[in-house]
Amino acid sequence: MSASFDYRQVLSPSFVETGSYRGDGIAQALGAGFETVHSIEIADHWINHCRQRFAREIADGRLVLWQGDTLDVLPRVIAHLSRPATFWLDAHSHPHNTGTEKSAVNCPLYHELGAIAASPIRSHRVLIDDLRLITDPRSWGGHDVTFSGMLERLRAINSNYAFAFLDGLIEKDVLVARVETGMRTDQATLDAFLSDPLSQSIRSARSALACEVDPMSRTVFPRI
Ligand SMILES: C[S@@+](CC[C@H](N)C(=O)[O-])C[C@H]1O[C@@H](n2cnc3c(N)ncnc32)[C@H](O)[C@@H]1O
Questions:
Q1: Residue 102 CA: which ligand 1 atom is closest?
Q2: What is the second-level CATH architecture of the domain 7-221?
Q3: CB 42 near ligand 1, within 6 Å
Q4: Which of 38, 40, 34, 37 has the alpha carbon at shortest distance from 6?
Q5: With a 6 A CB cut-off, is 108 part of the ligand 1 pocket?
Q6: Model confidence, pTM
Q7: What are the extents of the domains in the chain?
Q8: Which of 2, 41, 122, 124 has the smallest CB count inside 10 Å?
Q9: Ligand 1 atom closest to Cα of residue 69
Q10: What value does the mean pLDDT take over residues 42-68?
């Protein structure tokens, strides 16, 4: 799902997205001024859509679209990076999105964080979208990612990461890990997630929606 924050807050030479979908994240990253944007997508339909939508940027070399499963492709993209990058980790399966069933996992996040941890660059910025869903093991057909599991793996990349939260579909739906002078962890929000992954603000936002918005088709279906 596209973020509602300004991508210029997390500018780096390169932007690496997992899950291209309609290309809205790519458009935001190109607009924010990232020199190079890499985006990985498993579904043929969405890769073809993005190839058409961004034909000029692909020809210019500003955008590289990678077709395939982030499990296989992300380590290859990371091997291309020579400087700290901004990662936008946003790939996950959905029953209505043809193509995602090709992956062995519904939510590849732990594999992606492992691939980043294997990079010799320790100061990448890592953004993880959809906290309201990722903290719920029933999302996306079921998965084993937890909030504390994410933090543990991020700290394995860099034990000095500070954590902040940016707005996505709802308030504070994006976890940001970065090492920067003057950056401080938003400890209150972190503690709220740790003590109750579906913290009060997240719950109230979800109940305000009174439904789950399908991020693929943008149709709305009742929460079960
Ligand atoms: C929520 S959408 C991404 C939205 C996009 N990042 C944006 O900001 O507009 C998730 C996308 O991840 C893709 N996806 C799911 N599993 C994947 C995998 N294992 N590898 C690569 N892409 C995957 C889906 O096909 C879908 O297009």
A1: 19
A2: 3-Layer(aba) Sandwich (3.40)
A3: yes
A4: 34
A5: yes
A6: 0.90
A7: 7-221
A8: 122
A9: 20
A10: 97
- Looking at the DSSP bridge assignments, the partners of residue 36 are 14
On the question of pLDDT at 210 being above 60, the answer is: no
What are 10's two structure tokens?
């997390």
Cβ pair 57, 68 in contact under 8 A = no
CB distance 202 to ligand 1 below 6 Å = no
Q: Which residues lie across from 212 on neighbouring strands?
A: 221
In DSSP terms, which residues pair with 164 in a beta bridge?
176
Return mean pLDDT, the chain. Answer: 87
Residue nearest to atom 24 of ligand 1 (CA): 19
Highest mean pLDDT pick, 32-46, 87-101, 128-142: 32-46
Q: What is the mean pLDDT of residues 62-85?
A: 97
Determine if ligand 1 sits within 6 Å of the CB of residue 91: yes
- Quick check: 56 pLDDT over 90? yes
Instruction: Check if the beta carbon of residue 144 is closer than 8 Å to that of residue 111.
Output: no
Residue 224: predicted pLDDT: 27
Tokens (6 digits) for 26: 């790519």
